[in-house]
Design brief:
Length: 281
């Protein structure tokens, strides 16, 4: 092979190669599945998944968590996925897998670990209503202690960077914002259609927060404006995006509301990844 041809092939390979830290695997840039497609997405994922048990100080029962790893050659930031009021479901695990596809070590703890029948977690409850009641019984202090334990575990992984974020949905979205109040070491927070903390509590926030909301979700959205105004007054970062025609839970219920939820999802997920990369990488 002559030198000119060798150089030409080298240039082609450089042009076709993904930039380090931007694309991780052939499906980078894809949005997460809706609830109906979650199980299939997990089954066809090429990424490494594992279940771990994480010790929480002062608790006899360990916290069960699902971990998804990215395919990248350098160390990755950690993102903790806080589940909805429905507990740790296939859909939340699919969110973790999608985050791994975008380059993060994603850890989704089951915050009901040890609270289900027989000392089990979410999957041991007899009905979704029972799960909802159990999640509602969790206190913010209990959640913060669990998230602290997960963050220590995650940042201690050999493949992890020393940066971490939270992302939460519905009830978990509210907890993500509350954890930004409670944990000054948090590097970024993402809130999907969760209510905002009281104005006075926002003084303690040290991390940039990204909020993503459906337009038709007044219960949540009435808390967003006051929080945005207070965060601006305090000189803190809170970027809130509201998507026209979308309802509560739009990322999970992508098939609902005549395409509005899907359109919101297609806009919200890239904004999520942009926020996480900006403050974690």
């Amino acid at each position: 092979m002559d030198d000119k041809l060798s150089m030409f092939l080298l240039i082609l390979s450089m042009i076709g190669a993904p930039l380090a830290g931007v694309a991780y695997g052939g499906d980078a840039g894809v949005i997460p599945p809706g609830e109906a497609g979650a199980k299939a997405a997990l089954e066809r994922s090429p990424r490494h998944h594992e279940w771990v048990d994480i010790a929480v100080p002062g608790k006899d029962v360990k916290l069960t968590a699902f971990v998804a790893y990215p395919e990248r050659k350098d160390k990755a930031p950690v993102v903790i996925v806080i589940h909805e009021i429905y507990g740790l479901t296939d859909w939340i695990r699919a969110i973790a897998d999608r985050l791994a596809g975008d380059g993060f070590i994603a850890i989704a703890p089951d915050l009901l670990s040890g609270r289900g029948p027989g000392g089990g977690g979410t999957d041991k409850f007899a009905s979704r209503d029972d799960v909802v009641k159990a999640v509602r019984d969790l206190t913010s202090a209990e959640v913060a202690a669990a998230l602290d334990a997960v963050s220590r575990y995650g940042k201690g992984l050999p493949a992890a960077k020393n940066t971490f974020a939270t992302i939460g949905f519905c009830w978990g979205g509210s907890q993500s914002f509350l954890y930004a109040v409670a944990q000054p070491g948090l590097n970024a927070a993402v809130v999907y259609y969760g209510t905002s903390p009281e104005a006075e509590a926002l003084k303690a926030v040290r991390t940039p927060v990204r909020g993503l909301y459906g337009e038709d979700d007044a219960r949540v959205n009435t808390t967003v404006g006051p929080a945005a105004a207070k965060m601006k007054e305090l000189g803190k970062t809170f970027i809130a995006n509201t998507y026209k025609g979308a309802g509560h839970g739009f990322l999970r219920a992508q098939d609902d509301r005549g395409g509005a939820n899907l359109e919101a999802s297609r806009k919200a997920w890239p904004a999520t990844i942009e926020h996480l990369r900006k403050y974690l990488e």
